[in-house]
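User: Structure with iron/sulfur cluster, tokens only please.
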Amino acid sequence: MVASESLAGLPPGSRDPIKARRAASDPERPGEGCRAVPGVWMPTIDREKCEGKEDCVAVCPYSVFELGTLTDPEYHELGFWGRLKARNHERRTARTPRAEACRACGLCVVSCPEEAITLQLSK
Ligand code: SF4
Ligand code: SF4
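Assistant:
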């Protein structure tokens, strides 16, 4: 659980600070409250679930995410429901081109409406 005093310590950088502050107050927020050494944790996206809604892009203080499009091989790896979702959302999906900048604030995890993001130790 993240203590309320950590809200004041939320780093700048989120594209949507209001959404980021809301996420910061979520008692389910995992991670290390932005105190992790960069490169230790990284977000993993479940492509079966991601609908490209961009909440992760909006809240991440370190610009880890950007929106992309599923490649044909990625699309064909999905199950039936994943492909259906992907077609309904023009194959949009989140990418993590700057995953090594993650500080494990956990904002992306609790912001994702599809519960598509988990934080994992990179080593
Ligand atoms: S991971 Fe979640 S928040 Fe990010 S684009 Fe996909 S659905 Fe949206
Ligand atoms: S946990 Fe990492 S990837 Fe997710 S919002 Fe925080 S810094 Fe960005």
